[in-house]
Amino acid sequence: MQINTIKDGKVFNLLKEYVSFIVAAALLAIITYINPRFMSPGNISNILSNMSALLLLSIGVTFILLIGSIDLSIGAMSSCACVIFAVTLSHIGWLGLVSALLFGATAGLFSGLLYVKLKIPSFIATFGTMSIWQSLALIISNGSPQQIGKDLWIYTQWFKIKLGILPLPFLLTIIIFIILLVVEKKTKFGRSMYAIGGNESAARMAGLNVDGTKIMVFVLMGLFSAAAGILFACNLKSGIPTVGAPFTLTAIAAVALGGTPLSGGKGGLMKTLAGVILVILMQNGMNVIGVDVFWQKITFGLIILVALGITTDRKRRNLVVK
Amino acid sequence: MSDMELFTCDNINKRYDSTRALQDVSFSVKQGEIVGLVGENGAGKSTLMKIMQGVEKADTGTMIINGKPYLPQNPKVANILGVGMVFQEQSLITNLTVAQNIFFGDENKFKTAGIINSRKMNQEARKVLDKLGLVDMIANKRISDIQFSRRQMVEITKVLCRASQDNEGKSLILLDEPTSVLNADEIEVLFEEMRKLKKEGNGVVFISHRLDEIMEISDKIVVFKDGKCVSELTREEATEKIIYEKMIGKNSADEFYRIDKQTVPQDSVLIETDKLGLFGYFKGVSFTLRKGEVVGLYGVVGSGKENLSSVLAGNEKYTTGMLKVSGKVVKFSSPYRALKARISCIPTERRVEGQVGIATIRENISYSSMDNLCSNGFISSKKEKELSNRWIKGLNIKCVGAEQLVENLSGGNAQKVVFARVLSSNADVIILNHPTRGVDVGAKEEIYEIIREATARGIGIILLGDTLDECIGLSNKILVMKDGIVTKIFDAPPDNKPNQIDIIQVMM
Predict the structure, then answer these.
(1) Residue A309 — pLDDT band, cuts 50, 70, 90?
(2) Which of B217, B241, B245, B411 has a Cα at 20 to 30 A from A9?
């Protein structure tokens, strides 16, 4: 039975697809109107630089949500990678980068195996691994930030390079984003993610490699978390064991805000890009306008609720993460 | 049995999307009459029951009970007006007692100041149970402590109680396949109860697939086929043979299943099993599937046929014996591995595990052909579009276009999308689980045509037919299963198809 209401109209559906971009544009206009200094080259570079880490994390989270799971250990993994990078720099130089990424991949693999092979629901599995990596970060760093000494700054200076107003980290992130956008749309792996999120049993019976895809998604999440951790370290010139903590929910919020539902099967990286832009605009914009920090958090929370409320797919009851 | 009409329905029509579930059905039950209702799955029996019970509304037509017009908005109203139904899967709440179940929903009768007077409830229950002759049923015993078959009696008591409450008239009791869970003794007890109901002047409608039961207990037998009431027989007139013929329609069986197109299997063996077994479900299954052959699996639910098909599809790992595919011994750990061995399957529950509803037709068709559509790791949009357009045309899938979401298609067309997925995967072996379930007659014929074409191309098919007739009509060979073993393998060449009766005898 198809009930035709205004909600099913073609125009409304088209709007729904791009609503996040439209809202982001509107928000940008409003903020700039209130404070024109927002669009100054210096501020833009700043914003783009800050956006890189969140965007990297959000790419990973997009895939996690697409298959209908969740990862609560994102922040902990990036904190741990941040600390590992900072601490190993003095011992093995550029290999410190590799060790941080290796950690990320392994941590992701661990979560993935718990989820796929031991069939522990991802919420619970990553709740557990979150504690493990957070503790590991504190252990490695002895509980306090590990400064990256001036003699090691050659490893972090690339963070400051700019091409015009575009910071290098941002450019690298965008390149990674484009690569993964192609993967999402044009590879068997990408198609499998959508199928698994849409109907896992059907994807399995159709002969898709469900287990393999899921594990790969978690490994990628680990890698992206580590990459974000490295960016944190280069930006702050130290390994801070709690740096990533607030980013877990922010990243998930950005992806959900962009239009990828928690139930999976729909959405994607383009939507996430809009969501990340929105979140960054909200955070930076409220700073520039001069909103009190605590009010910022309240506003942030309210906006997320409204956005999720509008975009939630009400027909699908299995919203609770698997 | 008096001559007074208890219940009549006239020209009932009911449509679900494009399927006509009931067409101009007229049917009546007299006071003190037991009517047996027979027909294949999908013939319309359950739909009519749902309408009589207030679960669904008819599109057109009228109903009368106890001389008054009858249009129940929901089952509770139906009960008040005198119609009650006992479901196949019981509706009792197992951690409550007999009395609590009988009066479930009517507790207000026993409430004083918000507290239920259990003693009074148990006394009332005792009265009702005695009236039905169930003297040894204890009113405050938990359902979970009562044998499964005895629960049926509680179910009937509950329904009777509700249905005859505020009613000066008689009640109509509907029984939907109550005997499938009972043994011979229990069935006799049930029949005794039914005779008692009959003596009191109530009416009973009894649905069953077991023709011997129907013939034993019914005063009148009504046959449903394709949504129509095709025949009414008295007990004296009816024989099993006549009922079957009316149920299936003897004239067109051959044409319907395209028996003339049944291919002779080639020599090359696709699948060979040797004493294959899955612990707890089936064992000792040995058979071969050749190119161009259709092997049918038939048996009652729980006979092991679903599990055998599951093992062949890679959904479950077998525990004993051996499975060889194209000469190589295999043990699949997932359908992913089975597809690599060129085995693909159409699952039973399409919505649950056959289709990804929120994905498009094009995407659904491509899922099993990913490797063929990729060059250098990237999916070729051109090849993919070509593939979906070809199959939409070839299978006559009614849709707005390849980008339509599968969840918006009708059952028959969604099933065709699943067929397209499986056939385009270049699998050598296709396992069909009830491929025509929920599909209307027109689409069924198209699907049979598809099956014949596939075998002509050398594909081997394992078929779990929806009906015995379908199984016989389509297969070259039929494996009949019972309690986990293959009891007999029937040869079914086009010119010498086995009789339904022969197969059913080996199946029960």
Answers:
(1) confident
(2) B411
d(CA A211, CA A67): 11
Interface membership of B366 toward A (CB under 8 Å): yes
With 0-12 CB in 10 A as exposed, 13-18 as middle and 19+ as buried, what is B116?
A: middle
As averages over each run of 10 residues, the pLDDT of chain B (508 residues) reads: 83 80 90 88 80 90 90 87 78 88 84 87 88 80 81 80 67 83 74 84 86 87 88 85 72 66 88 93 94 92 88 94 94 95 91 90 95 90 94 88 88 87 93 81 79 92 85 92 91 86 80
Cβ atoms A74, A64 nearer than 8 A: no
Q: How far apart are CA A148 and CA A87, in angstroms?
A: 8
B369 touches chain A (CB under 8 A): no
- Token readout for A160 is 């400051």
What pTM value is reported for the model?
0.75
* A317 pLDDT more than 70: no
Answer yes or no: are the C-beta atoms of A232 and A82 closer than 8 Å.
Answer: yes
Tokens of B270: 């696709």
For every residue of B179-238, DSSP letters joined together read GGG--HHHHHHHHHHHHHHHHTT-EEEEE-S-HHHHHHH-SEEEEEETTEEEEEEETTT-
Question: What residues of A are in contact with residue B313 (Cβ under 8 Å)?
Answer: 205
Q: What is the strand order of the sheet B19-30 is part of?
A: B19-30, B5-16, B60-65, B68-69
* pLDDT value of residue A179: 97
Contacts of B421 in chain A (CB under 8 A): 206
The DSSP secondary-structure symbol of B491 reads E
CB pairs under 8 A between A and B: 87
Is there a contact between A207 and B368 if contact means CB atoms under 8 Å apart? Answer: yes
pLDDT band at A315 (very low <50, low <70, confident <90, very high): low
Separation of alpha carbons A242 and A59, rounded Å: 21
Residues of B in contact with A205 (CB under 8 A): 313, 315, 335, 345, 347, 353-354
Q: Annotate chain A with three-state secondary structure.
A: CCCCCHHHCHHHHHHHHHHHHHHHHHHHHHHHHHCHHHHCHHHHHHHHHHHHHHHHHHHHHHHHHHCCCCCCCHHHHHHHHHHHHHHHHHHHCCHHHHHHHHHHHHHHHHHHHHHHCCCCCHHHHHHHHHHHHHHHHHHHCCCCCEECCHHHHHHCHHHHCEECCEEHHHHHHHHHHHHHHHHHHHCHHHHHHHHHHHCHHHHHHCCCCHHHHHHHHHHHHHHHHHHHHHHHHHHHCEECCCCCCCHHHHHHHHHHHHCCCCCCCCCCHHHHHHHHHHHHHHHHHHHHHCCCHHHHHHHHHHHHHHHHHHHCCCCCCCCCCC
Distance from CA of B184 to the nearest CA of A (A): 39
What pLDDT, on a 0 to 100 scale, did the predictor assign at position B87?
A: 75
CB contact under 8 Å between B353 and A205, yes or no, is: yes
Mean of pLDDT values over A127-151:
92
